[in-house]
Write a structure and sequence with these properties.
This protein is of the alpha/beta class. The chain is about 50% helix and about 15% strand. It contains 13 helices and eight strands. An eight-stranded mixed beta sheet has the order 3-2-1-4-7-6-8-5, with helices on both faces.
Length: about 375
Protein backbone atom coordinates (compact mmCIF):
# COMPACT_ATOMS: atom_id res chain seq x y z
CA UNK A 1 0.00 0.00 0.00
CA UNK A 2 2.84 2.42 0.86
CA UNK A 3 4.52 1.78 -2.47
CA UNK A 4 1.26 2.25 -4.36
CA UNK A 5 0.64 5.56 -2.61
CA UNK A 6 4.23 6.67 -3.21
CA UNK A 7 4.25 5.93 -6.94
CA UNK A 8 0.74 7.26 -7.43
CA UNK A 9 1.66 10.57 -5.77
CA UNK A 10 5.02 10.66 -7.59
CA UNK A 11 3.31 10.19 -10.96
CA UNK A 12 0.82 12.96 -10.26
CA UNK A 13 3.47 15.42 -9.05
CA UNK A 14 5.83 14.60 -11.93
CA UNK A 15 3.12 15.02 -14.54
CA UNK A 16 1.91 18.33 -13.08
CA UNK A 17 5.31 19.98 -12.63
CA UNK A 18 7.29 18.35 -15.48
CA UNK A 19 5.11 16.34 -17.86
CA UNK A 20 2.43 18.93 -18.52
CA UNK A 21 4.81 21.86 -19.19
CA UNK A 22 6.84 19.63 -21.52
CA UNK A 23 3.67 18.63 -23.35
CA UNK A 24 2.60 22.27 -23.78
CA UNK A 25 6.02 23.36 -25.05
CA UNK A 26 6.20 20.44 -27.49
CA UNK A 27 2.71 21.04 -28.83
CA UNK A 28 3.36 24.74 -29.36
CA UNK A 29 6.50 23.91 -31.34
CA UNK A 30 5.15 20.99 -33.37
CA UNK A 31 1.51 22.01 -34.00
CA UNK A 32 1.40 25.81 -34.22
CA UNK A 33 -1.83 27.67 -34.96
CA UNK A 34 -0.66 31.10 -35.96
CA UNK A 35 -2.92 34.14 -35.88
CA UNK A 36 -2.80 37.35 -37.84
CA UNK A 37 -1.53 40.59 -36.27
CA UNK A 38 -1.66 44.14 -37.58
CA UNK A 39 -1.14 47.71 -36.39
CA UNK A 40 -4.83 48.41 -35.78
CA UNK A 41 -6.31 51.00 -33.41
CA UNK A 42 -9.94 50.11 -32.66
CA UNK A 43 -11.89 52.17 -30.15
CA UNK A 44 -10.91 50.95 -26.69
CA UNK A 45 -12.63 51.26 -23.31
CA UNK A 46 -10.22 50.70 -20.43
CA UNK A 47 -12.09 49.43 -17.37
CA UNK A 48 -10.73 49.75 -13.82
CA UNK A 49 -12.60 48.42 -10.79
CA UNK A 50 -11.35 50.45 -7.83
CA UNK A 51 -11.90 49.90 -4.13
CA UNK A 52 -10.07 52.40 -1.88
CA UNK A 53 -7.33 53.07 -4.46
CA UNK A 54 -6.63 56.73 -3.63
CA UNK A 55 -2.93 55.95 -3.21
CA UNK A 56 -2.51 54.74 -6.80
CA UNK A 57 -5.44 55.87 -8.96
CA UNK A 58 -3.95 59.24 -9.98
CA UNK A 59 -0.73 57.59 -11.17
CA UNK A 60 -2.75 54.91 -12.94
CA UNK A 61 -4.81 57.43 -14.90
CA UNK A 62 -1.72 59.45 -15.76
CA UNK A 63 -0.15 56.26 -17.07
CA UNK A 64 -3.18 55.38 -19.22
CA UNK A 65 -3.72 58.85 -20.64
CA UNK A 66 -0.13 59.09 -21.85
CA UNK A 67 0.05 55.74 -23.62
CA UNK A 68 0.93 55.53 -27.30
CA UNK A 69 -2.64 55.23 -28.56
CA UNK A 70 -4.84 57.65 -30.56
CA UNK A 71 -6.59 59.90 -27.98
CA UNK A 72 -9.85 59.81 -29.91
CA UNK A 73 -9.98 56.01 -29.71
CA UNK A 74 -9.51 55.77 -25.96
CA UNK A 75 -11.87 56.09 -23.02
CA UNK A 76 -11.24 55.14 -19.40
CA UNK A 77 -13.96 54.07 -16.99
CA UNK A 78 -13.18 53.97 -13.27
CA UNK A 79 -15.83 52.04 -11.33
CA UNK A 80 -15.45 52.90 -7.64
CA UNK A 81 -16.80 50.02 -5.56
CA UNK A 82 -18.01 51.98 -2.53
CA UNK A 83 -14.58 53.56 -1.97
CA UNK A 84 -14.22 55.45 1.31
CA UNK A 85 -10.77 57.01 0.91
CA UNK A 86 -11.06 59.69 -1.74
CA UNK A 87 -10.63 57.42 -4.76
CA UNK A 88 -13.49 59.15 -6.60
CA UNK A 89 -12.12 62.64 -5.97
CA UNK A 90 -8.63 61.60 -7.08
CA UNK A 91 -10.00 60.03 -10.27
CA UNK A 92 -12.13 63.05 -11.14
CA UNK A 93 -9.18 65.36 -10.53
CA UNK A 94 -7.59 64.13 -13.75
CA UNK A 95 -9.84 66.61 -15.56
CA UNK A 96 -9.64 64.63 -18.81
CA UNK A 97 -12.85 64.24 -20.80
CA UNK A 98 -11.85 60.68 -21.69
CA UNK A 99 -12.18 59.60 -18.06
CA UNK A 100 -15.59 58.62 -16.69
CA UNK A 101 -15.92 57.89 -12.98
CA UNK A 102 -18.76 55.73 -11.66
CA UNK A 103 -19.39 56.28 -7.97
CA UNK A 104 -21.07 53.02 -6.99
CA UNK A 105 -22.35 51.63 -3.73
CA UNK A 106 -20.56 48.54 -2.40
CA UNK A 107 -21.24 45.88 -5.03
CA UNK A 108 -18.08 43.79 -5.06
CA UNK A 109 -15.58 43.66 -7.89
CA UNK A 110 -17.87 41.69 -10.19
CA UNK A 111 -20.65 44.23 -9.84
CA UNK A 112 -18.27 47.12 -10.43
CA UNK A 113 -16.87 45.53 -13.59
CA UNK A 114 -20.33 44.75 -14.91
CA UNK A 115 -21.48 48.33 -14.33
CA UNK A 116 -18.43 49.73 -16.12
CA UNK A 117 -18.79 47.33 -19.05
CA UNK A 118 -22.40 48.43 -19.52
CA UNK A 119 -21.25 52.05 -19.90
CA UNK A 120 -18.37 51.26 -22.24
CA UNK A 121 -18.60 52.38 -25.86
CA UNK A 122 -15.37 50.97 -27.26
CA UNK A 123 -15.24 48.05 -29.66
CA UNK A 124 -12.68 46.44 -27.35
CA UNK A 125 -12.90 46.24 -23.56
CA UNK A 126 -9.54 46.38 -21.81
CA UNK A 127 -9.38 45.35 -18.16
CA UNK A 128 -6.52 46.33 -15.89
CA UNK A 129 -5.82 46.60 -12.16
CA UNK A 130 -5.47 49.95 -10.44
CA UNK A 131 -1.89 49.24 -9.36
CA UNK A 132 -0.71 47.90 -12.75
CA UNK A 133 1.35 50.34 -14.79
CA UNK A 134 1.37 49.70 -18.53
CA UNK A 135 4.30 49.95 -20.90
CA UNK A 136 4.04 52.89 -23.32
CA UNK A 137 3.03 50.70 -26.27
CA UNK A 138 1.01 48.12 -24.30
CA UNK A 139 -2.40 48.97 -25.80
CA UNK A 140 -1.17 48.79 -29.38
CA UNK A 141 0.42 45.40 -28.69
CA UNK A 142 -2.71 44.19 -26.89
CA UNK A 143 -5.14 44.89 -29.73
CA UNK A 144 -2.83 43.85 -32.61
CA UNK A 145 -3.96 40.15 -32.55
CA UNK A 146 -7.59 41.28 -32.94
CA UNK A 147 -6.81 41.94 -36.57
CA UNK A 148 -7.60 38.22 -36.80
CA UNK A 149 -11.37 37.72 -36.70
CA UNK A 150 -10.89 34.38 -34.91
CA UNK A 151 -9.29 36.08 -31.91
CA UNK A 152 -11.85 37.20 -29.34
CA UNK A 153 -9.56 37.92 -26.41
CA UNK A 154 -5.94 38.78 -25.70
CA UNK A 155 -3.98 38.23 -22.47
CA UNK A 156 -1.29 40.76 -21.61
CA UNK A 157 2.09 40.03 -20.05
CA UNK A 158 2.12 40.62 -16.29
CA UNK A 159 5.57 41.37 -14.91
CA UNK A 160 6.60 41.95 -11.32
CA UNK A 161 8.86 44.78 -10.31
CA UNK A 162 11.90 44.16 -8.15
CA UNK A 163 11.08 43.36 -4.57
CA UNK A 164 12.42 41.69 -1.46
CA UNK A 165 11.05 38.97 0.75
CA UNK A 166 9.55 35.55 0.19
CA UNK A 167 6.79 36.97 -2.02
CA UNK A 168 9.44 38.00 -4.54
CA UNK A 169 9.70 34.31 -5.43
CA UNK A 170 6.56 34.90 -7.48
CA UNK A 171 8.72 36.65 -10.07
CA UNK A 172 10.52 33.39 -10.75
CA UNK A 173 7.22 31.57 -11.12
CA UNK A 174 5.87 34.15 -13.59
CA UNK A 175 9.03 34.00 -15.70
CA UNK A 176 8.34 30.30 -16.27
CA UNK A 177 4.60 30.84 -16.67
CA UNK A 178 5.30 33.40 -19.40
CA UNK A 179 7.15 30.74 -21.37
CA UNK A 180 4.15 28.42 -21.07
CA UNK A 181 1.74 31.14 -22.14
CA UNK A 182 3.71 31.72 -25.33
CA UNK A 183 3.54 28.00 -26.13
CA UNK A 184 -0.16 27.72 -25.21
CA UNK A 185 -1.02 30.67 -27.42
CA UNK A 186 1.03 29.32 -30.31
CA UNK A 187 -0.76 25.97 -30.00
CA UNK A 188 -4.28 27.41 -29.78
CA UNK A 189 -5.38 29.17 -26.59
CA UNK A 190 -3.83 30.42 -23.39
CA UNK A 191 -5.70 29.03 -20.39
CA UNK A 192 -6.88 32.43 -19.15
CA UNK A 193 -5.81 36.03 -18.70
CA UNK A 194 -4.59 37.82 -15.57
CA UNK A 195 -6.25 40.92 -14.17
CA UNK A 196 -3.18 43.10 -14.69
CA UNK A 197 -4.04 43.50 -18.39
CA UNK A 198 -6.29 41.75 -20.89
CA UNK A 199 -8.81 42.58 -23.61
CA UNK A 200 -11.99 41.08 -25.07
CA UNK A 201 -14.24 42.15 -27.90
CA UNK A 202 -17.18 44.03 -26.40
CA UNK A 203 -19.80 41.76 -27.99
CA UNK A 204 -18.19 38.73 -26.30
CA UNK A 205 -18.27 40.16 -22.77
CA UNK A 206 -20.54 38.25 -20.40
CA UNK A 207 -21.48 39.58 -16.95
CA UNK A 208 -19.20 38.38 -14.16
CA UNK A 209 -20.93 36.35 -11.41
CA UNK A 210 -20.04 36.90 -7.75
CA UNK A 211 -17.58 34.63 -5.97
CA UNK A 212 -15.28 33.80 -8.91
CA UNK A 213 -12.04 35.18 -10.31
CA UNK A 214 -13.24 37.87 -12.70
CA UNK A 215 -10.29 37.75 -15.12
CA UNK A 216 -10.69 33.99 -15.52
CA UNK A 217 -14.47 34.21 -15.98
CA UNK A 218 -14.33 37.03 -18.55
CA UNK A 219 -11.40 35.70 -20.57
CA UNK A 220 -12.58 32.07 -20.72
CA UNK A 221 -16.05 33.16 -21.83
CA UNK A 222 -14.33 34.01 -25.13
CA UNK A 223 -13.36 30.35 -25.56
CA UNK A 224 -16.85 29.21 -24.56
CA UNK A 225 -18.15 31.30 -27.47
CA UNK A 226 -15.84 29.63 -29.99
CA UNK A 227 -13.20 32.39 -30.25
CA UNK A 228 -9.48 32.22 -29.52
CA UNK A 229 -7.75 33.64 -26.45
CA UNK A 230 -4.12 34.44 -27.29
CA UNK A 231 -1.10 35.92 -25.54
CA UNK A 232 0.51 39.26 -26.48
CA UNK A 233 4.06 39.25 -25.12
CA UNK A 234 4.52 42.92 -26.02
CA UNK A 235 1.54 44.10 -23.96
CA UNK A 236 3.39 44.51 -20.67
CA UNK A 237 1.87 45.50 -17.33
CA UNK A 238 4.09 46.01 -14.31
CA UNK A 239 2.96 45.24 -10.75
CA UNK A 240 4.76 45.34 -7.39
CA UNK A 241 5.39 42.06 -5.61
CA UNK A 242 3.52 41.37 -2.39
CA UNK A 243 4.56 43.56 0.50
CA UNK A 244 5.05 40.54 2.77
CA UNK A 245 4.46 36.81 2.90
CA UNK A 246 1.43 37.38 5.18
CA UNK A 247 -0.19 39.73 2.68
CA UNK A 248 0.69 37.43 -0.21
CA UNK A 249 -0.76 34.40 1.62
CA UNK A 250 -4.09 36.15 2.19
CA UNK A 251 -4.17 37.27 -1.45
CA UNK A 252 -3.40 33.78 -2.70
CA UNK A 253 -6.12 32.20 -0.57
CA UNK A 254 -8.64 34.69 -1.94
CA UNK A 255 -7.52 34.22 -5.55
CA UNK A 256 -7.40 30.42 -5.36
CA UNK A 257 -10.77 30.14 -3.64
CA UNK A 258 -12.36 32.30 -6.31
CA UNK A 259 -10.32 30.55 -9.00
CA UNK A 260 -11.48 27.05 -8.05
CA UNK A 261 -15.07 28.29 -7.96
CA UNK A 262 -14.50 29.84 -11.39
CA UNK A 263 -13.36 26.49 -12.82
CA UNK A 264 -16.54 24.93 -11.44
CA UNK A 265 -18.48 27.68 -13.19
CA UNK A 266 -16.69 26.91 -16.49
CA UNK A 267 -16.67 23.11 -16.04
CA UNK A 268 -17.94 22.70 -19.60
CA UNK A 269 -14.43 23.64 -20.71
CA UNK A 270 -13.07 20.48 -19.04
CA UNK A 271 -14.71 18.31 -21.71
CA UNK A 272 -12.00 17.29 -24.25
CA UNK A 273 -14.66 16.15 -26.72
CA UNK A 274 -15.72 19.78 -27.15
CA UNK A 275 -12.56 21.71 -26.35
CA UNK A 276 -9.76 19.31 -27.20
CA UNK A 277 -6.32 20.01 -25.77
CA UNK A 278 -7.55 23.14 -24.01
CA UNK A 279 -9.52 20.89 -21.61
CA UNK A 280 -6.27 19.13 -20.67
CA UNK A 281 -4.55 22.49 -20.14
CA UNK A 282 -7.33 23.71 -17.87
CA UNK A 283 -7.42 20.50 -15.82
CA UNK A 284 -3.65 20.34 -15.43
CA UNK A 285 -2.94 23.99 -14.69
CA UNK A 286 -5.98 25.31 -12.86
CA UNK A 287 -7.00 22.17 -10.94
CA UNK A 288 -4.07 19.79 -10.54
CA UNK A 289 -1.46 22.49 -9.90
CA UNK A 290 -3.70 24.14 -7.32
CA UNK A 291 -4.37 20.81 -5.60
CA UNK A 292 -0.79 19.56 -5.38
CA UNK A 293 -0.43 19.94 -1.61
CA UNK A 294 -2.07 16.58 -0.70
CA UNK A 295 0.01 14.54 -3.23
CA UNK A 296 3.17 16.31 -2.02
CA UNK A 297 2.34 15.44 1.59
CA UNK A 298 1.68 11.80 0.65
CA UNK A 299 4.89 11.67 -1.39
CA UNK A 300 7.03 12.99 1.45
CA UNK A 301 5.41 10.80 4.12
CA UNK A 302 5.58 7.56 2.13
CA UNK A 303 9.10 8.33 0.89
CA UNK A 304 10.28 8.71 4.49
CA UNK A 305 8.52 5.49 5.52
CA UNK A 306 10.09 3.55 2.65
CA UNK A 307 13.54 5.16 2.96
CA UNK A 308 15.20 1.90 4.04
CA UNK A 309 13.88 0.04 1.00
CA UNK A 310 15.63 1.91 -1.77
CA UNK A 311 17.67 4.86 -2.96
CA UNK A 312 14.76 6.40 -4.85
CA UNK A 313 12.62 6.65 -1.71
CA UNK A 314 15.48 8.19 0.27
CA UNK A 315 16.28 10.69 -2.49
CA UNK A 316 12.66 11.84 -2.83
CA UNK A 317 12.19 12.18 0.93
CA UNK A 318 15.46 14.11 1.23
CA UNK A 319 14.63 16.43 -1.69
CA UNK A 320 11.18 17.22 -0.38
CA UNK A 321 12.56 17.72 3.12
CA UNK A 322 15.19 20.13 1.78
CA UNK A 323 12.58 22.20 -0.09
CA UNK A 324 10.39 22.28 3.01
CA UNK A 325 13.25 23.38 5.26
CA UNK A 326 14.44 26.05 2.83
CA UNK A 327 10.86 27.28 2.40
CA UNK A 328 10.21 27.43 6.13
CA UNK A 329 13.50 29.26 6.68
CA UNK A 330 12.60 31.73 3.94
CA UNK A 331 9.18 32.44 5.43
CA UNK A 332 10.66 32.98 8.89
CA UNK A 333 13.55 35.15 7.72
CA UNK A 334 11.27 37.19 5.48
CA UNK A 335 10.05 39.07 8.54
CA UNK A 336 13.61 40.29 9.07
CA UNK A 337 14.13 41.16 5.39
CA UNK A 338 16.92 38.57 5.18
CA UNK A 339 15.56 36.42 2.37
CA UNK A 340 17.87 35.99 -0.60
CA UNK A 341 17.31 34.41 -3.99
CA UNK A 342 18.19 30.95 -2.64
CA UNK A 343 15.25 31.03 -0.22
CA UNK A 344 12.72 33.18 -2.10
CA UNK A 345 11.53 30.52 -4.56
CA UNK A 346 11.14 27.61 -2.08
CA UNK A 347 9.47 30.02 0.37
CA UNK A 348 7.01 31.05 -2.31
CA UNK A 349 6.43 27.40 -3.28
CA UNK A 350 5.56 26.51 0.32
CA UNK A 351 3.40 29.61 0.72
CA UNK A 352 1.39 28.82 -2.43
CA UNK A 353 0.76 25.22 -1.44
CA UNK A 354 -0.33 26.22 2.07
CA UNK A 355 -2.68 28.76 0.53
CA UNK A 356 -4.04 26.11 -1.83
CA UNK A 357 -4.93 23.86 1.11
CA UNK A 358 -6.93 26.63 2.73
CA UNK A 359 -8.57 27.55 -0.58
CA UNK A 360 -9.57 23.94 -1.25
CA UNK A 361 -11.05 23.76 2.26
CA UNK A 362 -13.00 26.95 1.55
CA UNK A 363 -14.49 25.44 -1.62
CA UNK A 364 -15.37 22.15 0.12
CA UNK A 365 -17.12 24.11 2.89
CA UNK A 366 -19.01 26.17 0.32
CA UNK A 367 -17.20 29.33 1.45
CA UNK A 368 -17.26 32.02 -1.25
CA UNK A 369 -15.15 35.17 -1.33
CA UNK A 370 -17.56 37.73 -2.76
CA UNK A 371 -15.98 40.94 -1.48
CA UNK A 372 -12.50 42.29 -2.07
CA UNK A 373 -10.38 44.68 -0.07
CA UNK A 374 -7.14 45.58 -1.87
CA UNK A 375 -4.17 46.38 0.35
CA UNK A 376 -1.69 48.67 -1.37
CA UNK A 377 1.68 49.83 -0.17
CA UNK A 378 2.25 53.60 -0.53
Amino acid sequence: MMRTLFWGAASLVTYTYVGFPTLVLARGALRPRLHRQAAITPSVSVVIAARNEAAVIAAKLDNLLHLDYPPGCLEVIVASDGSEDGTVAQARASGDARVEVLELTRLGKAGALNAAACRARGAVLVFTDANSMLAHDALRALVAPMADARVGGVAGDQRYQDGAGAASGERGYWNFDRLLKRAESRGGNVISATGALYAVRRELFQPVPDGVTDDFAVSTSVICQGQRLVFAAGAVAYEPVGASSDAEFARKVRIMTRGLNAVLLRRELLDPRRHGFYAIQLLSHKLLRRLMAPPLIVLGATGASLARRGTVYRAVAAAEGAVLCLGAAGLMLERRRLVGRLLALPAYFCLVNLASLKAAANVLRGCRVERWEPRREP
